[in-house]
Amino acid sequence: xxxxxxxxxxxxxxxxxxxxxxxxxxxxxxxxxxxxxxxxxxxxxxxxxxxxxxxxxxxxxxxxxxxxxxxxxxxxxxxxxxxxxxxxxxxxxxxxxxxxxxxxxxxxxxxxxxxxxxxxxxxxxxxxxxxxxxxxxxxxxxxxxxxxxxxxxxxxxxxxxxxxxxxxxxxxxxxxxxxxxxxxxxxxxxxxxxxxxxxxxxxxxxxxxxxxxxxxxxxxxxxxxxxxxxxxxxxxxxxxxxxxxxxxxxxxxxxxxxxxxxxxxxxxxxxxxxxxxxxxxxxxxxxxxxxxxxxxxxxxxxxxxxxxxxxxxxxxxxxxxxxxxxxxxxxxxxxxxxxxxxxxx
Length: 345
Known about the structure:
The chain is an alpha/beta fold and 345 residues long. The protein folds into two domains: 1-36; 53-343, 3-Layer(aba) Sandwich (Rossmann fold), CATH 3.40.50.1110. The chain contains 14 helices and eleven strands. Helix 4 (124-135) crosses helix 13 and helix 5 (153-162) runs parallel beside helix 9 (235-253). 36% of the residues are buried.
């Protein structure tokens, strides 16, 4: 009889512990939702979230690619019109792919290449095309902007494989920004189009995930997010290395030269204290190892105040001046490496 009552007592105690834990977890969840909602990996409200995600993008049929620009869409965002052509590019309508009259340059990248918060005719792919066609009458150039906000280097490799190579380009340009090693859906567009895990609907679970991420940033990057993304041996940087390997294989299959253009982080106040020069060298080194040419825009951008080359305060995207500097640097490289007589088909 004593054992029976003892067992019931242990069961009651266990039930009490479970109920107490559930009460604490539930109370914490409610408190976080009311007073301190966790933005990290938050599930977007697609019914009300109309930045320019659902209006301009769609889920992608390319394996491994979550989303892409939808064709023939337009939306005005913060005073800037964004329009896509019939092929889902933020670009003018190109000649058919089978038309070999033009020398084509395919540009891959993220929002820096896409031209976030600048007019399309101020983006560096558009400026580069205009400059090339102004400087020569021997041939016509088409610079195809395949950049999409939210893409990482792995996405760029998929775009080259499934879209870029169809154009049989003479040159492939990869725009690289310092958040390109991101593999989790921390960018708004990634979260919008990726199916969330069940736990992402919990503020408490996201708080724990954020704490784990912050610990990784401390351990792998000394507390600096960009250093963490480029930590050798971590899955973030490994994803970049594998993507560059894929780009190398794809480009070599058609003997296409590849140019990597590295954009600096423009949120710093003084270029003299710029903290990421070593990350630029790291990206340049792995690119050179794969036979890619590299343009590091840090030197050019640092000739101007950071506020002049970023699109606005608190936003690291290039301003029209930043895009113009990038276009000029790329033009000089093309003019040196591929004179018109050599680029023409």
